[in-house]
Amino acid sequence: MKIALVHELLTMRGGAERVAKILADLYPEAPIYTLLYNEKKLGDWFPRERVRTSTLQPRFPLSAFRFPLNHHIHLSRFPSAVEQWNFNEYDVVISTSSAFTHNIITNGKPKHLSYINAPARYLWDRTFDVQKHARHGLFGPLKQRYLQKTFHKLRAWDAECAGRADKLIAASNDVQRRIELYWRRESDVIYPPIDDFWLKKVESGKRKAERYFLIVSTLVPYKQIDIAIDACNKINAPLKIVGEGPDRKRLEQRTNHASQITFLGYQEQESLKELYTNASALLFPGIEDFGIAPLEAMACGTPVISFRAGGPLETIVEGKTGLFFDEQTPQSLADVLQIFNASAFDAELCKAQAQQFSREKFEIQMKQAVSNLML
After folding, report:
1. pTM (predicted TM-score)
2. Which residues of 293-329 are buried (b: 16+ CB within 10 A; e: fewer)?
3. Which domain holds residue 89?
4. Which of 134, 143, 266, 305 yields a CA-CA distance of 20 to 30 A from 74?
5. Do 143 and 85 fall into the same domain?
6. Domain tally for the chain?
7. For residue 141, is the peptide bond before it cis, meaning its omega torsion is within 30 degrees of 0?
């Protein structure tokens, strides 16, 4: 079979890009179509000779694409760009979509399998939050009106075109629910895999947790990291925060002189593994479609304390590999932190849970989905 891969934006490293990379490794001869490509950031994952960019690529400086929210100024151009690609020479197209690429045009030749990381949250779930955030600053009101108009048009396009793919694969049961809610389509669930790095060299024995909590996240508002900061400030608990992002300065301002909050920035995998292994627990206060960080923590034998929503409901076994807090507030999280006892959790149970989300399992399931599509 002649296969093509499609992914929205190859401009930063994230969970969606990790899934795209696994598919690129699985089908090494397949070209990779994308709206925009930053070779400096992703050339080692997706070599230039395999990448086919859209008509938008020459128009915008890549420096404008440091973080996803910066793409909003160009959103209105993206639908027409994905519709211009011609896939007639292929037998199968596999798209990984968080916004647009599930709506490419194939007309049944080739077959189109679309892996849905999530329906675009800024069009459906979080549209009012994004618009509210946009109104800040000198040109905020103008930007807000632009987004209101653009989001309305994009929602109509998304709903109208959501039937184009031959088969949809959802990244979680929560994503599957939203696919049915917004697009009125059925889908199968194949969970994203955890990187092999976290699953190899699994050591036995008891984990010796230190007395600090951990956050591993891109620092953007919707991750709700301020909830974890405020909760740890309330009970004077140490918190280490790994990651970079545009929200870092605001988050740092929520700390005080007596605070035990430490911002560690970006960490390489080996350092991050040590931080995971030694933490009392990973804190996960946002709402995610799936969430890889909790699985990385569990692979290191570390339990997770998460808000009771989204992907973690499908990966954390309550009372065995983690706990949940029920209200997305600092007080609700602080209440759980005060009763949390790291020694009550078995590191081997956490590791065994993470093993269920292996790359090998993901690859087998995706190959089977492609085979079923061609029957």
Report:
1. 0.85
2. bbbbbbbbbbbbbbbbebbbbebbeeeebbbbbeeeb
3. 3-193+359-373
4. 266
5. yes
6. 2
7. no
